[in-house]
Amino acid sequence: MTIRPLTPVEMKVFDRILIKRKQLLLKVPLCERTILDMEKRGEFPKRFSITCRLVAWDLGEVDGWIARQKAMALQPRPPGDKNSQ
User: Fold this and answer.
1) How far out from the chain centre does Cα 61 lie?
2) Among 1, 3, 42, 57, which one has the highest count of C-beta atoms within 10 angstroms of its own C-beta?
3) Is residue 57 over pLDDT 50?
4) Residue 59: exposed, middle, or buried by beta-carbon count in 10 A (0-12, 13-18, 19+)?
């Protein structure tokens, strides 16, 4: 397995925090299968490999996803929308 070197831009990101699976599941109240399916559809931040047995998510990306979900939930829904109640 070849390890990709960090680009100069990536080297300048000092505030990046990575979270593991258990931390993600504490933060996002979804099951692992739902998260995996959403990742595959491009609806959730993608995990990446740290080692061959460890994956992680960028906390900033997860927090951004949560903020977008909250913003969408706060938007008024048009009358007759099957999700509005």
Assistant:
1) 5
2) 57
3) yes
4) middle
